[in-house]
Structures are given as C-alpha cells and as structure tokens.
Amino acid sequence: MTTAQDNLLAGTQRALLHRIAVAQSEGRAPSLVAAVARGGRVVWHGARSSMDGHAPDENVQYRIGSITKTFTAVLVLRLRDEGLLDLTDPLEKHLPGTGAGAVTIAELLAHSGGLAAESPGPWWERTPGSLRPELADVLGEQPFRHPVGRRFHYSNPGYTLLGALVEKARGASWPDVLRREVLEPLELSRTSVRPQSSHAGGWAVHPWADVMLPEPTEDLGRMAAAGQLWSTTADLARFAVFLMRGDDRVLSQESVQEMRAPAASVEAADVADGYSYGLGLEIRHRDGRLLVGHAGSLPGFLASLVIAVADDVAAVVLTNCTSGPLASTVGADLVRIVAEAEPRIPEPWRPLREVEPATLELAGQWYWGTYGFGLRVTADGLISLEPLSGTGRRSRFRANGDGTWTGLEGYYAGELLRAVRQVDGTVSHLDLGSFVFTRQPYDVQAPVPGGVDPDGWRGIG
Length: 461
Prior knowledge:
Elements: E1 2-3, H1 10-26, E2 31-38, E3 41-49, E4 62-63, H2 67-81, H3 91-94, H4 105-109, H5 135-139, H6 156-170, H7 174-183, E5 203-205, E6 212-214, H8 224-227, E7 230-231, H9 233-245, H10 253-259, H11 268-273, E8 275-277, E9 282-286, E10 289-298, E11 301-308, E12 313-319, H12 327-341, H13 357-360, E13 364-368, E14 371-377, E15 383-387, E16 395-399, E17 404-407, E18 416-421, E19 427-432, E20 435-438
Antiparallel strand pairs: 1-3, 2-3, 2-12, 4-7, 5-6, 8-9, 9-10, 10-11, 11-12, 13-14, 13-20, 14-15, 15-16, 16-17, 17-18, 18-19, 19-20
C-alpha cells in the first residue's frame, strides 16, 4: 500500500514501493513505513503491513531510538549559538560533580569522550528508568572505557549527560525544552516523549519461526535524551529537511552544516566501511554518495533517517520489530532510487553582477612547483583553486575585504591566500600558507623558495 503523489514519476514510486515491500517481507516485519523528502518537502510515503487493510499511514507513531540523539544535539548547538557555552568547554564547567567532567561538550556530541557504551545493568532499554534515577546510576562507578578524546566509542550515557546539561542551562526538563525549542517551531506535532494515539506496538519476531512476542515499552527516565522519542515518517521527513537547510527559528544553516561534518577520530575498520560521526549525526559513504543522518533501535523498533545533501533527497524508514529489515540500508536505497531515477536539476548558471578587476586578474592557470592548478572566480563571489589533474588539494576561498582570501575546506581550510604584487602593481605570485604559486612552473621572475637553477629547463644531453 502506498499513497501516490504527483512529485515523483510513477516508475520511481513503484521502485520505492518495491524496495520497502521486499524489506518488510524478507525482514519479516509486522509493519514498515517510509517517506521521502525532496526539494524541501515530503514527496512520497509508503507502508507495508502483515495485516491486510491496516497499513499505517504517515502519522502513525513508532519509537525512533537513537535518532533522539540528533534532537538532543540540536538543543546543545542552540546553547552554543546563544553564547551560553563553548563546545570546547569541559562538562565540569557547566554540570559539575558528574565524575566525567573532564570530557568536553564536543567530545560528548561526537562520542569521543571515552565513556562506556551502555549504562550498568540491568539492560536499560527493557527496564524502567526509575532504576536509574540519578546520573551516577547511569554512569556507574567506572564510567570510562578509553582515554578521553582518543577514539570514537558510541556512548548512550554520554547523551544522557548532554540531556542533563540542557536541563541545567535552561532550568527546565529535557522534554519541555525540546518541545518548546524544536518540536513546536518545526511543527513536529506527532513527535513526543511518550506514545500518543495512534502508535505501533513493538514486537520481537522469533528468529526461527514466524511467530511474535510483544516487547515492553519502558520510560527511559534519565536516559531519555539518548533514545526516548516517538515520531512518524511525516515528522521525521520534515526534520530531515531542517537538517539539510536549517531554520533560523531553531538552528542556522551554518550550524546544521557543522553537525554534518566529521568530528570524531574513527577506527580503521570504520574508515574502511566509510563511516564517521559528526555532532549528533552519523556520516556514511555508500555507493559513491555521502549520506548523513542517524539510525535508531529499541526493543520492538528499528528506525533510520538518511540524507543525501548533494542530491537534496532524504528518506525515513520505521518498523516495529526488534530485529529484521536493515533500516539504514533501506533508507540509503530509497535515497539512491530517487537520486538516480530523477537527478536533481541544477539551478541555471548566471554570471556575476560585477567583479573587481584585481580579482579577475587572478583567474587562470597557476603552478605550485610543477603541479598545475586552475583558479576560477565563481558566481557565488568565491574563488576556487583546483588541481588540473583532477586529483589533489583543492579549496574554495572567501574574500576578507583586504585583498586576502581564506580557505574554506580541505587542506587549505583557514589558510590565507594573498596576491603578491610587484612595484608596478602586476601580480608576481600567489602566496598560500607560504606556498608560492607562479604563472609558469618555477618562474625565475618569482621568489621561488630555494631558487631556480639559472641554466633553466633542459633535456638530457
């Protein structure tokens, strides 16, 4: 069952429906719902169910597990943007007495604080949060498993600390702050801390028999900021649009872009798998496509939110079984189907309204030693320096207003580029972080470090 919408071609819609039908059938899921957003709004949603005629729609709630962490990260970034804290601050500065105060806020967001993956037993996801009423109960007597800041190690207690930090800074409960500062402004009216009608029940499907067992639905208490939320495909698709574009009522585009950047040192196996972690968001490289988002799971539920920013496509997948369909894989496939079947149409090229002669003079070919580069002045007012070979160091640069430019990405991020002029005003060379770029390879007229052999270029004689 699916609801057709005019925004996608019929063939694309059928391919999406086929993918979730296979996932529900082969994954033996009681139900599976999905949605796709493109161009800033939801363009498709679909559902499959084991009960004929009762497929859930886009407004039925499912538990979303660790996608909750992304919401908590948004609240922390809001505190930073308001100047109430810095991400480099140790937790102790704002939330003293936890026993984990040496960890910075950024390290907690990126799971690089060295904290344990789970709270001390019993299994916190299937037991009442009342068993862990205080932060000390969540952290245990030995909260650390690794040196602080040395490696990525996923930590649910770490996000419990971030939830407590939000409560301390705002003087209100995490659910109240979340509702007031994120859910209401973004109109996510079907996202809540506790289930609201109508919602799916969580099930465990027997691994060797086609029978099911109901899973308990516990209030996670102190652990809520790590995995408590219930939501719908419609709400999460809108949230995905926010994570692509930002919303100044909640968090700027620059800040959500910061969330999407790698922030943790990952292990070699993660590098091989194309996996890293930002500030509350997972980052994956799959099928040549960069994907951001988050997966979630709690007993009885699996969830995934996947975004391909470059394609302007996002997908949400929710299901109500403890194990079964690989929700992140399904979400990535839904994004791929849309991106490949209906590629994003680029905006029309438009020339610059005006360009300063001194900037235009820099355009063209440059050499760092014998490496060729091309410098372009782009329509967004930046300059771009790219290797002519197609591989190597590249960056865009933003003008500083004083004749210098600052690198925005890659090796040259934050580095200063300036055009060095001769007495007559003509450009001698470019200086980029002490590297000399000349119009000709090892130009004898430029101050090339180490000098240039006076006999010049030669063959083998």
